[in-house]
Specification:
71% helix; homodimer; elongated; mainly alpha; 202 residues; DNA-binding; Arc Repressor Mutant, subunit A; Tetracycline Repressor, domain 2
Chain lengths: 202, 202
DNA sequence: CCTTACATACCGAACGCTTGTTACGTACCC
DNA sequence: GGGTACGTAACAAGCGTTCGGTATGTAAGG
C-alpha cells in the first residue's frame, strides 16, 4: 500500500467508523484506543498519526456521525404537514440495524455529555436544531387544518421529539417487545392523538 | 470511633450516597473509587471493606437508588384515571434538584446498560414495571370515559413513558428552556391530546 | 478488675495492569 | 533523499485491588 497522500480525510473516516463499531457494542466505557486499533487491524500509533489525541478522535467521530445522520438516505418526504413529520420521525426510530447502532451511540454519549459542559451544550444545540426542523411542518399542518388552531408548533415539536427519543430508549433496551410494527403503531397513534380529529384505533 | 458492628448496612448506604454524588456530576466515566473515597473523606481501603469489588459497589448504589426512588415522598395520588397518571409522571420529571440528580444518574447509566447484557436486562425490567404500574390507571380512565374505547392501555402506557423520559432528557440538557412551567404545560397538553376530548390549549 | 485474645474498622502504601501518549525505527513512494 | 505512513516499544499516570499495620471495641479467664 502506497503512502500516497490525499486520501488522508478518507483514512480519518475509516478510523471514525471503527470508533462507531466499538462504541456500538461496548459503549464509551469500553472505548479505548487499543480496542479501536485492533477493531480495524492496525496499531495505536496509526491512530495517533491521524488524530492528535483521543478527545479529538472521539469528537471527529461524533461530528461525522452527525453529518452522516443528516445526509443519510431517508424515505421520501411525501407531503407537508403531519405526513412529513411522520416520515422524519420514522427515520429516527431504530427500525434498521444502522439506525439502531446510531441511536445506541447517541444514547451512550449522554453520559459524557451530561458530565462535560461543552459536550452538553452541543447536545442541547442538536435538540434545538431537531425541533427547529420539525416545527415548520407543524405550522404547515396547523395551516392545513390538521392541527387545532390552539396548538403551539414549537411546544408540539418538543413533545414529538420527546415521544420519539423516549421510544428509542425503550426500544433499544427491549427490541423484542418494540418490534418495527409496534413502534410504527405507537407513532401513528401518537400522531393521530396530536391531530385535530383522530381515528385513535390504529 | 467504635468499631461497633450493627451499623454496617448504614455505612454501605453512606457509601452509596457518595457514589450518587460522584455520578451526578462526573458521570460513569468519572466514577473512580478514589473519587468516591475523597468525596466522603475516607480511603479506598475503607470502600473495599464494605464492598468486595467496584462492580458490587455500583450495583448496590443503583439498586438502592431504585428502592429510594420507589419509596421517596411523592405528591398525592388524588384520584384514579388520568389525574393519577399525571401525578405519577410529574413525580418522574426533573422538577426538583433531587429528581434532576436521580434522572441524570439513570440517563448516565444507559451507557453501561447498553454495553452489559445483565444491566441491560435490568433496565428493560424497570421499564416493564414502570409501564405495568401505569396501565391500570389508563384502564380505569378508559372505563371512566376519559379515553376512547379503542385505546390500548398497555400501548398508551409505553407512549406515556416514552414522552416522559424523552422530555426528561431534553430538560436535563437544556434546563433553561424546559422550566418547571414548560414541562408541566407539555405534560398537560400531552395528557389532553390522548384523552377523549381535549381543550388542547392548556 | 485486669489481662489476654480476637474480631472489626479503617488507613496508607503498594501491587499489577491498562490507559493515553510519545519516541524511535522501518518501509515505501515521489 | 526526504517526507509520508505506519509498526513497535516504551513511558508516566491512573486504575481496581491487595496487603500489612494500627487502633478500637467485645468476650473470656483467672
Amino acid at each position: 500500500m502506497p503512502p500516497a497522500p490525499g486520501d488522508r480525510e478518507a483514512r480519518r473516516e475509516d478510523v471514525s467508523q471503527a470508533v462507531w463499531e466499538v462504541l456500538a457494542d461496548r459503549g464509551f466505557g469500553g472505548l479505548t484506543l487499543r480496542a479501536v486499533a485492533t477493531s480495524m487491524g492496525v496499531s495505536t500509533g496509526m491512530l495517533m498519526h491521524y488524530f492528535p489525541t483521543k478527545r479529538a478522535l472521539v469528537a471527529h467521530a461524533l461530528h461525522l456521525l452527525e453529518t452522516r445522520t443528516a445526509q443519510r438516505p431517508r424515505r421520501e418526504r411525501p407531503t407537508e404537514g403531519i405526513a412529513a413529520l411522520r416520515a422524519m420521525l420514522l427515520d429516527i426510530l431504530p427500525l434498521t440495524p444502522g439506525d439502531t447502532a446510531r441511536n445506541r451511540i447517541w444514547v451512550s454519549s449522554w453520559d459524557l455529555a451530561l458530565a462535560d459542559d461543552g459536550l452538553g451544550a452541543e447536545q442541547a444545540d442538536r435538540y434545538t436544531r431537531l425541533r427547529a426542523s420539525i416545527s415548520p411542518h407543524l405550522e404547515a399542518a396547523r395551516a392545513a387544518g390538521e392541527l387545532p388552531e390552539s396548538a403551539d408548533p414549537e411546544q408540539l415539536a418538543a413533545t414529538a421529539v420527546a415521544f420519539t427519543h423516549g421510544l428509542v430508549v425503550q426500544a433499544l433496551f427491549d427490541p423484542a417487545r418494540f418490534t418495527e410494527a409496534v413502534q410504527i403503531a405507537m407513532l401513528d397513534d401518537f400522531l393521530a392523538s396530536i391531530s385535530d380529529r383522530s381515528g385513535q384505533g390504529r
